[in-house]
Amino acid sequence: AAVKESLMRNTDFKVILTRNEDVFLSLEDRITIATQSGADLFISIHVDASKYSSTRGISVYTLSERGLDREAEKVARLENSLSVFSKKGLKGVNLKKGRNLIDHHNINEAFRKARDSSFEFAEILVDKVSERSQKLTRPHRYAGFAVLKSPNYPSVLVELGFITNDNDRQNFNNRNWQSSIANKFVEAVNKNYK
């Protein structure tokens, strides 16, 4: 909520949360909300856990090149793949009728553009958070999280720290820390999207 409030106070962007309370929302529902809202950026915010209490720090994940290629191929094979593209996405691509080389190229380019924009935003966010001397554990990482696999918008998954670490857990409950981190998100969004 702190990131939403800070974004709404300090930017001209419309901010949509996939949920407003602590309830489970499926990955598919989260992606659907982002796609149907015509999102320009998707930020998934979490806290991590580790069996080692000394593990701490913030990490920002984007989709790897390998994950991108696999996901693009899956989409290209789907019978009814138009459902994964937003209205502003790949207009005119109809994979139900079989794809041609141009459609295949457009699908791959949509994924690459989203991945490249995700990478750029992640690097800016890592840089902004580093300015506050926040502890970063391998700050920019790559994974195949479902929320990172959209061709419609750049997306990042942020682990704010580890609930299993005393220092990180104290930060999560500290309003000053929350505000500081939220402001770093604002700075990253403003730098990347203004």
Task: Describe the structure concisely for a colleague.
The chain has 194 residues and is of the alpha/beta class.
Task: Give a description of the structure.
- The protein has 194 residues and is α/β, with parallel strands linked by helices.
- 46% of the residues lie in helices and 15% in strands.
- The chain contains six helices and four strands, in the order H-H-E-E-H-H-E-E-H-H.
- It has a four-stranded mixed β-sheet.
- The longest helix has 31 residues, at 101-131.
- It starts with a helix and ends with a helix.
Q: How would you sum up the global shape?
A: globular
Output the helix-strand order.
Answer: HHEEHHEEHH
Counted by DSSP, the helix tally is 6
Radius of gyration: 18 Å
| Sheet with the most strands: spatial strand order | 1-4-2-3
Unreliable parts: 78-83, 91-98
Task: Tell me the β content.
Answer: 5-15%
Overall SS class: alpha/beta
Number of strands: 4
C-alpha end-to-end distance = 22 Å
**Nearest-integer average pLDDT:** 81
**What fraction, in percent, of the residue positions are helical?**
40-55%
